[in-house]
Design a protein that fits this description.
Layout lengths: L1 H51 L4 H9 L1 H19 L6 H23 L6 H8 L8 H24 L5 H9 L1 H7 L1 H16 L7 E3 L4 E7 L3 E5 L5 E5 H5 L4 E2 L6 E9 L5 H17 L3 E13 L4 E9 L4 H22 L25 H9 L4
Antiparallel strand pairs: 1-2, 1-5, 2-3, 3-4, 6-8, 7-8
Helix pairs in contact: 1-2, 1-3, 2-4, 2-5, 3-4, 4-6, 11-12
Length: 379
Amino acid sequence: METIIASLQTFFASWMDEWTNLLIALVIFLGFLLLRNIFTKTVFNRVLRWTGNTRAEFVHSLLQAYQRPLRMFWIVIGLYLALLYLPVSGMEGFIHKLFRSVVILLIAWGLFNLSGASSSWLVRLGERYGLQFDQILIPFLSRVFRFLLIALAFTVLAQEWGYRIDGLIAGLGLGGLAISLAAKDTLANLFGGIAIITEKPFSIGDWIQTPSVEGTVEEITFRSTLIRTFDQALVTIPNSVLANEAIKNWSKMGKRRVTCHLGVSYLTPREKIQRCVEKIRRMLQEHPDIHPETIFVHFDRFNESSLDIFLYFFTKTTVWGEWLRIKEDCNLRILEILEEEGVSLAFPSRSLYIETPLGMQDSEHNEPEASWRKLFRTD
């Protein structure tokens, strides 16, 4: 009887110890959850607001990148300490490896967020130190860094769990030739993208024209460049094709050309044409939105139905809407000059002159002509 009572006491004591340990582990986990809420809502948010109001752009971007990983870290460390408190014999090594693996993933997660193309800390840092980062270069480098980061995290995790990656690297080396042959177009697009980024024939937001497409550059990826046409269609062009084409960058214009032929009537006197040319030239030279460097206004040619005045000049702006407004204003001023001089614009016309034959008799030789005249006789 005493043996049974002693066994029951031992059982209940061990049972109580297990429940006590489980309760303590649960308290540890809930305590870290409470600390997480206190830390994120008070300390972290205050530090984040403080760095946002200072010139510490990198620190502010770093805190923003690690905001969610830090919240997850409190849960991970709470679970880690709670599991270590529980009597899990033989599982300590697995728990340590799992904890280190999760920490590695959290660190990679924060760096992945920091390298995002949407973060502007790199641009602000470059502005402070006089460095200029192209708008195409930042997204491209971001993708390259993210790819290398994922590969590095995978390598560290594999080594943490005892997997040897030497064989994998050797296999990649042996299969590299086959992969390169199978993906030669992809590699050509990749090197085409690198050529575009290094030579910088255009930037994101530029208006470009190629033999295959015309529009605004929206994005450049490893494989292709995305161009938004003026009818709002999104065209995807492989980088290898775009790198080998002639690219006309209209956004790089310092000024924008206006050229036309102004046709006036053949009945216009020479003096009026000369005065119109001089007034139009003077008007363009005094116009505040016309570039004064290159202005040509000359009586150019005798056309079929008009006397043509050639106009060639440039606007100071390259924006299409402003260019149209300035061009309209110049056209209205030209019309005003023509009205002042009493000069009318010519329109396509043709004069037909018919010579009457001298022989009007209805001879046998001119019998077809006589029949034609009888047909149209009105007397």
